[in-house]
Amino acid sequence: MKDLAIVLVSGGMDSATVAAIAQTKHENLAFLHISYGQKTANRELACFKLLADDFKIPIKRRLIVNMSFLQEIGGNSLTDRNIEVAKFDGDIDNIPSSYVPFRNSHIISTAVSWAEVIGAQKIYIGANHEDSPGYPDCRPEYYEAFNQLINKGTKEGTIQVLTPIIAMTKEEIIQQAMSLKTPLEHTWSCYARSDKACGVCDSCALRLRAFKKLGLDDPIEYV
User: Fold this and answer.
1) Where are the domains of the chain?
2) Given pLDDT bands bounded at 50, 70 and 90, which one contains residue 217?
3) CATH number of the structural domain 4-213
4) Most buried by CB count within 10 Å: which residue of 56, 155, 186, 203?
């Protein structure tokens, strides 16, 4: 298919914005969603489906993959029910308890496999360094290294992972989303709850802070 790109869509604000960016650059998109046993998996999947409808992605180009083995491995507050999701503690560079060990490598590898099958040359991911400065798999050098691996480990060696918002602030991401008319009301960022966003986990706090700095109301509901 002409000019086909895959977008990794978690259902969050960042990935939705990246989908909107990708839509300005490619004639055709395919959406990939990974469920890995996270506490808010059902809400994230619902948002993925809403976003896929918003972007008019054909059913045959929507792929949902179960990686629940990451929940079985555990060791992080997103999947382990025995580890509480921590409240935001300011901007720090330590690896937080929400880091799911090597998660992005599993996710990107799945996207690369699918790309080889459907003929996509680009894979978009909403990695953002400000959002998770302590996450080893959200650093620019990680993606540089992974693209080298893809080049060596695929049939054609032409697939590339793109991270268009990796250096943006949260405020810049929101501004980009709004300029592209991204339906942020159909996104979910909370790590802890699926009914109403908690407002105090790292992801909620950074999102709320950015909306406040811009003088805007976040369209999703908080506790």
Assistant:
1) 4-213
2) very high
3) 3.40.50.620
4) 203
